[in-house]
Amino acid sequence: MSVFIYHGFIKSIPLELEEASRIDGCTQIQTFFKIVLPMLKPTTVSIFILNVLWTWNDYLLPSLVLTKSQVFTMPIQMKQFNGTYFTDMSMLIPAMLMTILPLVFVYLFAQKSIIEGVTQGSVKG
After folding, report:
1. 17-41 residues labelled b (16+ CB within 10 A) or e (exposed)
2. Phi and psi dihedrals of 57, rounded to 5?
3. Residue 54, CB-side half-sphere exposure with 13 Å CA sphere
4. Which of 6, 14, 42, 64 is deepest in the core (most CB within 10 A)?
């Protein structure tokens, strides 16, 4: 998915920017690092957040691979608080809080770039 997002964004970068940098004397590598890479910042942050969420919330693969309870991920560990006839809410609520807090910190850290990425395509010119 990351490759498709990057491909779609890089394809939308005007070739005139690359041509102007070549006229100014930049090599292809300098053009990438000075022109294209700074424009990719909102896309990179969005991809980072999507990948963090995907990895953090992954349930199927760790539940198939992990066998020892000492190495269970948080979503798998939370399943143990649910029984057939009883749910231990006194343990489930703090576990949910511990699971959500790292994602909230990631969002707060990248909030400026997320908003910039969302609003980037909304204004023409």
Report:
1. ebeebeeeebeeeebeeebbeeeee
2. -95, 5
3. 8
4. 42
CA-closest candidate to residue 47, choices 2, 103, 112, 114 = 2
Half-sphere exposure at residue 57, Cβ-oriented, CA atoms within 13 angstroms: 9
Instruction: Give me 45's structure tokens.
Output: 């942050």
Amino acid at 92: L
- Structure tokens of 22? 């070549």
Q: What is the mean pLDDT of residues 33-50?
A: 85
In this predicted model, what pLDDT tens digit does every residue of 53-93 receive, in sequence order? Answer: 888 888 888 888 988 888 888 888 888 888 778 888 888 88
Q: Nearest to residue 41, comparing CAs of 110, 123, 107, 125? A: 110
Report the SS3 class of residue 82: strand
Rounded Cα distance between 21 and 86, Å, is 65
Distance of CA 98 to the CA centre of its chain: 19
pTM of the model: 0.65
